[in-house]
Amino acid sequence: MHDLLVNVWTPDADFVFPATEINKKILRFQFSWLQKYPWLIYSAVEDGAYCRVCILFAQKIVGKGKHERFNSLVQPCVKDWKRALERFKDHQTKRYRLDASDDAQNFKLIYENKRNDFIIEIDQSRKWLQIENRRKLTSIIRAVLFCCRQGLAQRGRRDDGPLPLDIPEENDGNFRALWRFAVDIGDLALQEHLKVAGSNATYLSHTVQNEIIDAGAEIITRDCKRPA
Ligand SMILES: [Zn+2]
Hints:
By secondary structure, the protein is mainly alpha-helical. It folds into two domains: 2-100, no CATH class; 126-225, no CATH class. It is 53% helix and 6% strand. The protein has helices at 2-6, 31-36, 52-57, 84-92, 95-149, 174-184, 188-196, 206-225, and strands spanning 20-22, 25-27, 40-43, 48-51. Strand 3 (40-43) and strand 4 (48-51) form a beta hairpin. The longest helix is centred in the middle third of the chain and has 55 residues, at 95-149. The protein starts with a helix and ends with a helix.
């Protein structure tokens, strides 16, 4: 509906409107009419003129079975180019057109504001997600770096799958023990992450650990090469 109101096809200034012979006169739709009457739209398929506002917003007020009848800019379209200007002028002053125009303005405002609110909402939730992910990732990187710095082997004998927060019977490696410890001393972001993350997105796998170590190594090498 919003597209019909604001994005409907409009011919260019050099569009050649089809000619119609009326009483031995060649007449055609005039581009300037579109500029003069902003509610006017031209249908190339029908070679006819409509009022975009009344099509959408006046059907409840006038038309078939209603008290007032449309003056041919809604059903059917205007095709008689000889009397077109007269029809447009008459239509311009119709009460139902003015009411429909108000309704269209209100609809446009509400629709566009709602869309903006929606976009802002998506943007904010994306930002929030970014902050959350960064927070989780910081905890994870710190765990990897801690093991590296202390010369601790990260992996245990059985260290795949979800991470149980209770201490397992079999040692599942320093990395996972460190995660468990972090949750135990109150890393709520990590605790939440373990609860809600999909099994393929926990960042617990040795592939992720290796990626973090590689990235760390790259940063250290780059910084060492940088001139003092
Ligand atoms: Zn109208």
